Amino acid sequence: MSATILEAEPAHPRIPAADHHRDVNGGWLRPAVFGAVDGLVSNFALMTGVVGGAASNGTVILTGLAGLAAGACSMAAGEYTSVASQRELVQAEIEAERLELSRNPQGELAELAQLYVSRGVDPELAHEVARQLSRDPELTLEIHAREELGIDPNDLPSPLVAAGSSFLCFALGALLPLLPYLLGATSLLPALLLAALGLFACGAVVARVTARSWWFSGLRQLVLGGAAAGVTYLLGWLIGGHVG
Predict the structure, then answer these.
(1) Rg (CA), the chain
(2) pLDDT tens sequence across 131-187
(3) What confidence score (pLDDT) does residue 34 get?
(4) What is the pTM of this model?
């Protein structure tokens, strides 16, 4: 009875190592956060610039819609190209490591053993650990990629996920200061208040995945976004009367 139970239980149960950690390697978080903040700041600054130049409400709306569409497409294209290029570079390095493992397995085994020795493992034990880990070619490749390249071949960021996250979040951020005008506002004040709340909220949300306090992160984002809008408003006011 007990023997059967012991046989049914795995000898070395795997404990998920990252259950108590946040996912910091995914391909969606950075472009999503950056896209939302950039959409809000850039489109609000763009709109305040034309408001400063005494543009009509219709022009402000058209400017905001154009900024939303152009910015979202640009962000998505940039993120896709950036992440795809990074992924292709990583995959090329992984394939180079795979080729080296097939051509010189003993040399790669000795290299892995030496790595463990450099971390304080006794030479004989390091060689034995490296030998046992090198039994499975795919596991060997994964270990070498982690140890030598600092990457996980099974957790590469997706260009489509990065582009989609960036596009949607930029569009949502850019839409926020535009909403009051779409709903009939005739002055910048409602858009200003909504944008200020959005900037603070974006900064506070970022703090949820970092070590910063939410109020510090929120105020920092509010100040930076407000400064950008202030500069463009001033430029629009200064040159608005000389254009047209």
Answers:
(1) 27
(2) 998 888 888 889 888 887 888 888 888 899 889 989 999 999 999 999 999 999 999
(3) 79
(4) 0.76
Secondary structure, 3-state, 134-179:
CCCHHHHHHHHHHHHHCCCCCCCCCHHHHHHHHHHHHHHHHHHHHH
* Alpha-carbon span 78 to 100, nearest angstrom: 33
List all residues 6 or more positions away from 43 whose beta carbon is below 8 Å from its beta carbon: 64, 67, 68, 71, 173, 174, 175, 177, 178
- Is 174 within 8 Å of 39 (Cβ atoms)? yes
Q: What sign does the dihedral 229-234-239-243 (CA atoms) show?
A: positive
- Across the range 101-109, mean pLDDT stands at 90
Cα-based distances in Å from 90 to 75, 109, 128 = 22, 22, 29
Q: Which two tokens mark 14? A: 């795997």
Which of 44, 19, 25, 21 has the alpha carbon at shortest distance from 162?
25
